[in-house]
Every structure is written in C-alpha cells, then in structure tokens.
Specification:
about 220 residues, mainly alpha, 6 helices, disordered N terminus
Length: about 220
C-alpha cells in the first residue's frame, strides 16, 4: 500500500530547464576536474622554478607542457560558463561574474607571458605580460566576487550558500595578501604559495558547487 503524501508537501516533476541545469552542473564539475588535472600536470612536470614562480610559467611558449597547460586553462574557463548555466533562475550578479571570469580565464590562457612572467613594480614587463597578468587578476576577482554573490543569494540551495561563504571568507584575505606582497616584495615563495592556494581553493569551490547544484532537486 502506497504511503500517503505528507500534508503541505508536493512533488513536482522536473522540468526540462531543471534537467538542463543539472546536466550543466555535472558538465561544469567534469570540465573543472579535467582542467585542474591538466594544469597540475603541466606545473609539476614542467621546468618551472617551483613555488617561487607563477603557475602561468607552465604556459610559456617553448615549454614542453605549454599545450597541456593551455588546455587546462580553457577547460577551467568552460567550467565557469557551465557553472553559470547551472544556477537557478533569480540569482543575480553571480552568472555575469562567472561569465566574466570565464572570458578573463580564456584570455589568460590565450595570451602567454614572457619568460618568468614579469610584473611591475620590480620587473620590466612586456605588453603581453601586462595583458596576461591583468586577465589573470580579473579572472580571480570575478570568481571571488561570484562566491560572495552566491553566499547571500536566496534562490540557491543552502549548501551552495555555505560553500560560497566559506570559500569567500578564505579567498578574500589571501587575495589581499598576494596583492600587498606583489607591491612590497615582488616575486618569491610567499606569492607563489599563496597564488597556488587561491587557485586550488577556487577550483575546489567550483567543483563542489557544481556538484551541489547538480544534486539539488527543485
């Protein structure tokens, strides 16, 4: 005998839009994972200077793993776009921020820096270095602000708000520290380690948020 429905509850069949958002969520998680693996392989296997250098140095022209690195960056950009598509209707700011982050991430992967990826004020940078560095900073800022927007967004599930709030609380001070360190001491182990922490946190947030959106039943 079937169990009677509980008072005050209804179960509505999933619409095509709901299914499409779930598919986008799983696709975002898959693309993010593939991108993270590719970038990690390129950074670890490449001839870079280790944690004293920038992650972007794995994509310098002539590096044997530059193609792997660029593939990973473009996959991460695609993951951000898919994550924006997986968000429920009514969410403000976050979809546009994620889309902007995807564009800047793709630009960062397409415009490679010169050897060492020099940045001012302590190093002489080329136009390509400035474009690459600016795109990378803008991409990170867009993703972090998307975390903040989702942390206070009512239409998303509580798990997504919790994940976004926690990731934003960790990312904001790390980003501020990196910005200050670049202006005060320039390249070094501190900046290299913090940069990797920020990227790892952003990728982990993207993967878990995409999975949470894909699993949410509306």
């Amino acid at each position: 005998m079937a169990e009677p429905a509980r008072p005050g509850t209804t179960t509505a069949p999933a619409t095509r839009a709901d299914v499409a958002r779930r598919v986008a969520g799983w696709a975002a998680a898959g693309a993010g994972l593939a991108g993270a693996v590719a970038v990690t392989v390129a950074v670890i296997a490449g001839p870079g200077p280790g944690v004293t250098g920038y992650v972007s140095e794995a994509g310098i022209a002539g590096n044997g793993h530059a193609t792997t690195y660029r593939f990973g960056i473009l996959a991460l950009a695609g993951s951000l776009l898919l994550l924006a598509a997986a968000l429920p209707p009514g969410v403000r700011a976050a979809p546009a921020l994620l889309a902007a982050g995807a564009v800047f991430t793709a630009a960062s992967g397409s415009v490679t820096c010169s050897a060492g990826c020099p940045l001012p004020p302590f190093e002489r940078a080329t136009v390509a270095d400035l474009v690459h560095g600016g795109a990378s900073i803008a991409a990170t800022a867009s993703v972090v602000f998307a975390m903040v927007a989702l942390a206070v967004s009512g239409p998303v599930d509580r798990a997504v708000r919790w994940l976004s709030g926690g990731a934003a609380a960790l990312s904001l001070p790390l980003c501020a520290t990196v910005g200050l360190a670049l202006l005060v001491i320039g390249r070094g182990a501190l900046v290299g380690v913090l940069e990797r922490l920020i990227l790892a946190l952003a990728i982990l947030w993207g993967l878990t948020t995409a999975a949470a959106l894909a699993l949410t039943r509306r």
